[in-house]
Write a structure and sequence with these properties.
Number of domains: 2
CATH architecture of the largest domain: 4-Layer Sandwich
CATH topology of the largest domain: Metallo-beta-lactamase, Chain A
Distance between the termini: 37 Å
CATH superfamily of the largest domain: Ribonuclease Z/Hydroxyacylglutathione hydrolase-like
Number of strands: 23
Strand order of the largest sheet: 8-7-6-3-2-1-21-22
Shape: globular
Strand content: 15-25%
Structural class: alpha/beta
Radius of gyration: 22 Å
Largest sheet: 8 strands, mixed
Helix content: 10-25%
Number of helices: 12
Length: 450
Amino acid sequence: MTPRSSDLWFLPLGGCGEIGMNFNLYGHDGHWLIVDCGVTFERPSLLDPNNTGETRIEAADPKFIADRKDDIAGLIITHAHEDHIGAVPYLWDRLRCPVYATPFTAEILRRKLGDVGLVGAVPVHIIPVGGRHSVGPFDIEWLNLTHSIPEPSGILIRTPAGNVFHTADWKIDHQPVLGEPFDAEPFRRLADADITAMVCDSTNATLPGWSASEGDLYAGIQHYVKTAPGRVIVACFASNLARLLTLLRVARDTERSVVLLGRSLHNMLGAARSVGLWDDDSVLVRSRDMGYLPRDKTLVIATGSQGESRAALSRLAANTHPDMALDAGDRVIFSSKVIPGNESDIQRLVKRLQILNVEVIASETAEHPIHASGHPAQDELSVMYEWVKPQLAIPVHGEEKHMQANAAVAKASGVPRQLTGQNGDLFMLAPQRGVRRQVVKPGRVVIERQ
């Protein structure tokens, strides 16, 4: 199956009909462009008689494109979240293609490649934020967006057969705390770029209105830290460096010392510093020294908001962390949302914390806002569709209900046609438009067991 010069195809192998494990292919003129190469975390069902209790880290099965690796023009990583970048160190040997990323994303990838001994083996091309580069027959422009991690990019793919705007993950945030505020002008200009299709994030398409801004969270977080009588532990996503910056400012204003617990937090912060994205000069206390701090003057920022068994917060709840033990009256703040599929793990974690007489504050029930999603709600989707004016909308990055909601927003926003599908469906964008169902049988490969 080889695309001709008149063809423009979109073939998702992961991330379409699900949230996570993004792996997208674009075909044109005998070549394939890969956009993102991520993982998902698959927890075994309690009803499975073969359940070993292990969590599997899985990626989309790359067999279709690995069998055509000589035709791969390149792999573009839109941002450094695990569901977009996490499989690269494990699948690259089967793809053997150049990789393109902006500086922060490239730095995170470099560290991941180092973990598996591939530094220097993978050709990683660093593209400036907002840059433009030819990758085989594809003319690629990186469009700066806002999300819950530094340097998120939408990808404008130009070909003689047609043009695609691949949004990846995004939101409209005018106060992102870290990085540049959302700039609408580049997306308004896409209306004049004759966009054949917009392939769009559907994660929050069922939610009305607008997503909250990172800049709106300081007051709520400060309230819960300031009113805590003892030690405060905040669980958040390690990749959300804007949230980390907000927490550091809250700590400074409430006169608390800060301790980071979790390797991924230190890794993300180190990457941001190394590429010049981080200039906060807050002094962090080493975890082994936190026992010397007064409890009412301590703010701990920890990994493990999704109940991960090896993460810092789960180890604290199990009283197995080498540097700290929770005390009755400590306050744990979940500055995060529950990712679908993680409900039971988080419930077990909360119960363990409550047994220790630790107060738990969750973002879903908190009186004041302490978390903001990184994905667009319905009004943001509508505005983006009205700016870009694509001929065709293809919702991805969501389950069926999310993609159908996205398609409905696109239709109401004046997009002439909407196509929805699943992993393995071939979306033909030019010269004719339509979908061939299950051209490729989608599958998963296990990368690691935890």
